[in-house]
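F.,

This is the one I mentioned.
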């Protein structure tokens, strides 16, 4: 997410961005990157155009949004990037990492499986979940589930060291 003060930059509105971890005024770019132990390699990027922008002909014309650009969800953009990279033979690795927007997107998680990848995605505390055993009669929010679990059931993970070695 690219934080913004105004509302005139293409795609700007109050929306969730993983980089801020909240809903804020911003543009959102969906990116596909490869990560190694020491480097991040950008592969693809697409500006997310919210429906409010995609459906506003006057705003589109003023900002010079091309005619062929239509509304796509962030998940649709991400899946198109993953499919294109896979089709080009890019070694995507065996793990897809993504923020909470993709944690609630079953199609992106399913595509990861189809491409032979596991996934580790963020999930929002408000997301509703079911128990694996099917004991619950109704889903509960992730925040409610976490409140029921002992703290010893959690641990902090780091995917890799940053440039300072931390």
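My design for it:
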């Amino acid at each position: 997410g690219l934080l913004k003060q105004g509302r005139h930059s293409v795609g700007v509105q109050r929306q969730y961005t993983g980089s801020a971890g909240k809903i804020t005024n911003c543009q959102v770019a969906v990116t596909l990157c490869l990560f190694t132990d020491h480097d991040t390699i950008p592969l693809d990027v697409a500006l997310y155009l919210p429906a409010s922008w995609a459906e506003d002909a006057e705003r589109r014309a003023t900002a010079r949004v091309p005619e062929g650009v239509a509304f796509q969800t962030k998940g649709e953009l991400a899946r198109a990037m993953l499919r294109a990279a896979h089709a080009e033979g890019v070694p995507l690795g065996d793990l897809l990492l993504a923020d909470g927007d993709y944690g609630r997107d079953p199609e992106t998680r399913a595509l990861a499986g189809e491409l032979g990848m596991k996934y580790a995605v963020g999930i929002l505390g408000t997301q509703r979940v079911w128990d694996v055993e099917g004991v619950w009669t109704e889903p509960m929010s992730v925040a409610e589930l976490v409140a029921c679990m002992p703290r010893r059931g959690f641990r902090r993970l780091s995917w890799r060291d940053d440039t300072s070695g931390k």
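The mean pLDDT is 89.

Talk soon.
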